[in-house]
Amino acid sequence: MKHAVAIDRRSRKGERLEARVTPEQKKLIARAAALRGSSVTEFVVASAQQAASEAIKDFELLRLHEDAREVFVNAILNPPSPSQAARAAAKRYQDQMAR
Fold first, then answer.
1. Which fold has domain 19-98?
2. Tens-place pLDDT, residues 46-74
3. Is this model's pTM higher than 0.70 or not?
């Protein structure tokens, strides 16, 4: 059954990346690829994809924190008026505390 699902990965790839590296970098990358049982190309692509995903995630997380900080500071400096439900809850609390 696995053979029917197999997909030729090369047919889906249309873009090419090139990089110049030192001989030491190439040896290091080749050794790491061999240890993982993959080709140098597969290793480089998988490593670059993982690094790119992490960089994007880190940026988006920092951006989210910045947006949340702005919302928080704005809420502190410009608090909204209490809603009807909040006023009712405060009244119930005051009534309970007066007993």
1. 1.20.5
2. 999 999 999 999 998 888 788 888 888 88
3. no
